[in-house]
Write a structure and sequence with these properties.
This is Pyridoxal phosphate homeostasis protein. InterPro entries: Ala_racemase_N, PLP-binding_barrel, PyrdxlP_homeostasis. This protein is α/β, with parallel strands linked by helices. It has one domain: Alanine racemase (TIM Barrel). The chain has nine helices and eight strands. Strands 7-6-5-4-3-2-1-8 form an eight-stranded parallel β-sheet. The radius of gyration is 17 Å and the shape is globular. The structure holds pyridoxal-5'-phosphate (PLP).
Length: about 220
């Protein structure tokens, strides 16, 4: 695999379904990957990256950002309220807005600092106990709450259950976004990003297919 191959596949699938490739942002998910692999992808010119832990991102991205201009960093993992301040310094986009307490915390910091990262609301489309995200039935209400707080909600994000056909989850997320007039759809990973693009994804989050397998050892 590798960056260029994945970029080609993203472009091809967008064209196949009659969408503009420019409307699909490829987020290279660099969590757990050795710095040398991340640097290689930066050297190839890619600038949009995703991390799922604030602490890990804080350990490696400030140095990369000094060396490479135009990096855009996306938080794709859970955000604890005590890490919000650190997160808004580091990340341009947060994909995991999933509860009122976090929304209120972001709104407070936005009032204080005058800025806020772009936001996606995570929806637990499979209603899995172990997963974060608002349930589909609560999504409209939560979007409204975030809008009332003035938060810059750009779209929705989901992580489908591993053992199910992801397409129905992508379709459900797209439908919730449509009825709430939200343009952004963060969905699709290494194994299913093409299906996500066919369902309307504006942001695909691809890790191992670009960088190789993650070594958690
Ligand atoms: C790790 C991760 C990804 C990337 O997964 P791959 O299967 O390596 O592409 C995408 N989204 C989220 C939320 C992740 O945590």
């Amino acid at each position: 695999m590798g960056l260029q191959q994945i970029k080609d596949r993203v472009e091809k699938e967008a064209q196949r379904v009659g969408r503009s490739p420019a409307d699909v942002t490829l987020i290279a998910v660099s969590k757990v990957q050795p710095n040398a692999r991340v640097e290689a992808v930066l050297q190839e010119g890619h600038r949009v990256f995703g991390e799922n832990r604030v602490q890990e991102a804080a350990g490696k991205w400030p140095a990369f950002k000094e060396r490479f201009d135009g990096v855009e960093l996306h938080l794709i993992g859970p955000l604890q309220t005590n890490k919000v301040r650190q997160a808004i310094d580091l990340f341009d986009v947060i994909h995991t807005l999933d509860r009122p307490k976090l929304a209120q915390s972001l709104a407070r910091l936005m009032a204080e600092t005058g800025s806020c990262p772009r936001l996606f609301i995570q929806v637990n489309t499979g209603e899995e106990d172990q997963k974060a995200g608002v349930h589909p039935a609560e999504a409209d209400g939560f979007v409204a709450l975030c809008r009332d707080l003035g938060l810059p909600v750009e779209g929705l994000m989901c992580i489908p259950p591993v053992d199910e056909d992801p397409s129905k989850h992508f379709a459900l997320l797209a439908e919730i976004a449509r009825r709430n007039d939200l343009k952004g759809l963060s969905m699709g990973m290494s194994g299913d990003f093409e299906a996500a693009i066919a369902a309307g994804a504006t942001h695909v989050r691809v890790g191992s297919a670009i960088f190789g397998d993650r070594d958690y050892a």
